[in-house]
Design goal:
single chain; about 425 residues; alpha/beta; Aspartate Aminotransferase, domain 2; Aspartate Aminotransferase, domain 1; 2 domains; seven-stranded mixed β-sheet; three-stranded antiparallel β-sheet; about 40% helix; about 15% strand; binds pyridoxal-5'-phosphate; Alanine--glyoxylate aminotransferase; aminotransferase; pyridoxal phosphate; EC 2.6.1.44
């Protein structure tokens, strides 16, 4: 494999950002002088032919709130720096080295030794669509264990792909037991079971131990959404027998949305290699594995990946690997335990009754009867510059969704947030 050159060489000297700037100034000057001499070409493309005039796009200033919703989360400092780096061609050694770093980091955060680990260009939904479309063929059955909005998304995506869907439900403020799922796996013999590990619409965390084994016993693959749980809550892909898993960078990863980590087990790999259906081209992991060099130095172009997104993901992984997963899990658990204690001191109640079902990245909080949820979140944003979100799906009008995750998983943030929430309640609900 010959190595290509990332930094351009112009006339034997190396090229830098200052050159780009002065080159741009010259281009602008040339354009204006050409227009001024009114050559016929410009007369032909006169302003009269433009049906849409140029809008005035001015900079907008805004004050960024502390992000304590169910996502997105604030960035790691290294991510801010990574996003401001200059662009390079995604077809050179430097770029492919970044892909290698990312794959190694993702194997660590998913805790898998699988080679088929990469990131999809797109938000968490891209991960969801790729895991489902690569592992379940049209006409096959996907069993969906539903307790929030993300399982509904999985159902919509699967249906559009021509997959038969079956849904089994549990009360929205609880999680599934193996005993609940086994009869359904037995009865339906699905190609796969879809389940959400951490659910940000209900604030629950699903226990995963034994689930992989149970699925495999009944001939099903296990597909898991870890968008809002990975990094914040223990997740052990190989140990738990998970076959297809996806996440997103905008939650506990503390990066920007736009690049979705995915991983496939060897069982999943076998299915992908023997499949007879074609998943959507953009989500085809068989092709993407060749771009990501999952099985050696293949470097096959599939689509132009976004270098800033990859640098951002690499910076997230660097920060997470430096901290290590056990420390990150403990930090999330400690800051959320502190937050919950402070909420109870202020007489807030939890939407999820069983403490062991509560997700440590997103807490669903009940407000006293009569308190308007949007008024509450509006006041918190206006007066305290903190963003939390109202309920979604099963929690609409029932609970707020409050996130303490990623870089914000600290007891200092928990204190600021709990105090601001207490102040907000006093202000808009004076009787309390
Ligand atoms: C936020 C979220 C998603 C969606 O992720 P996007 O990056 O917005 O596509 C999916 N699943 C869960 C559990 C989430 O919390």
């Amino acid at each position: 494999m010959t190595s290509s050159i990332c930094g351009s060489q112009v006339m034997g000297r190396s090229f830098n950002d200052k050159d780009t700037q002065s080159w741009w100034n010259i281009v602008q000057y040339i354009d204006i002088s050409l227009i001024n001499i009114n050559i016929p070409l410009f007369q032909a493309m006169s302003y009269e032919n433009l049906r849409v005039s140029s809008p005035k796009i001015v900079d907008r200033q805004f004050v960024k709130p502390l992000l304590c919703g169910p996502g997105p989360c604030d960035y790691w400092p290294a991510v801010v720096e990574a996003l401001s780096r200059q662009i390079i061609t995604p077809n050179c050694d430097e770029f492919y080295n970044v892909l290698d770093d990312i794959r190694a980091g993702l194997q660590y955060v998913f805790q898998t030794q699988s080679k088929l680990v990469l990131a999809m260009s797109g938000a968490g939904h891209a991960g969801m669509e790729s895991v489902i479309s690569n592992l379940v063929a049209p006409g096959e059955t996907l069993l969906i264990a539903a307790r929030g909005v993300w399982d509904q998304r999985a159902e919509i995506i699967a249906k559009r792909l021509g997959i038969k869907t079956e849904v089994t439900k549990t009360p929205m403020n609880s999680t599934f037991t193996l005993d609940q799922l086994e009869p359904e796996l037995k009865r339906l013999r699905p190609a796969a079971l879809f389940i959400t590990h951490g659910d940000s619409s209900t604030g629950t965390v699903q226990k995963m131990q034994g689930l992989g084994e149970l699925c495999h016993k009944h001939g099903a693959l296990l597909l898991v959404d870890t968008v809002v749980s990975l990094i914040g809550v223990p997740f052990l892909m190989d140990e738990w027998g998970v076959d297809g898993v996806f996440s997103s960078t905008q939650k506990a990863f503390s990066g920007p949305a736009g690049i979705a980590p995915v991983a496939f087990s060897s069982r999943a790999e076998k299915k992908i290699n023997n499949r007879t259906h074609e998943p959507p081209f953009y989500f085809d992991v068989k092709l993407l594995a060749n771009q990501w060099n999952c099985y050696g130095d293949t470097r096959q172009y599939h689509h132009t990946m976004s270098p800033p997104m990859l640098w951002a993901l690499r910076a997230c992984l660097q920060s997470i690997c430096n901290e290590t997963l056990p420390v990150s899990w403990a930090r999330h658990a400690a800051s959320t335990a502190h937050f919950h204690k402070r909420l109870q001191e202020h007489n807030f109640e939890f939407f999820v009754p069983k403490p062991e079902d509560r997700l440590s990245t997103v807490t669903t909080v009940k407000l006293p009867p009569g308190v308007d949820h949007l008024e509450f979140t509006g006041y918190l944003r206006e007066k305290h510059n903190i963003l939390v979100l109202e309920g979604r799906g099963p929690t609409v009008g029932k609970a707020l969704r409050v996130g303490i995750m990623g870089v914000n998983a600290r007891t200092a943030v928990a204190d600021i947030l709990a105090d601001a929430m207490a102040d907000t309640l006093r202000a808009i609900h004076p009787k309390k």
